[in-house]
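Look at one such:
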Amino acid sequence: MIKTALFLRTIPAVLVMSAAAYGLTAHAQTQSGTNEGASSSSSNGVVQKVEKATKKAVNATERTAKKVGRATSKTASRAAGAVRHTGEKIGKKLPKGSARPPVDEQGRPGNKAP
């Protein structure tokens, strides 16, 4: 579900960028050298539109990355809580053990410390 939602959120940004790139390529190929004044003002408009679309795509990507980070953190916290809860449930069902076995000074079990 998360992968699908993330994929669906990134599709518009990718489409805008690809359309802008295609439009710039087509515009650059059809531009004539005789109308320098008129063509430069229209190309500035295209550049501004592409810059605006790029800024929107960057902002959308940043927002999506933050949302994914928060969702991942929340999921990890919930998973850790579930593991702790399960461990506590299992621990309650285990029989009480005897005292700890004796260990030596190096921490090896079974040997009494001198």
Q: What stands out?
A: DSSP finds two helices and no strands in the chain. The chain has one domain: 2-93. The longest helix spans residues 36-93. The two ends are 61 Å apart (CA to CA).
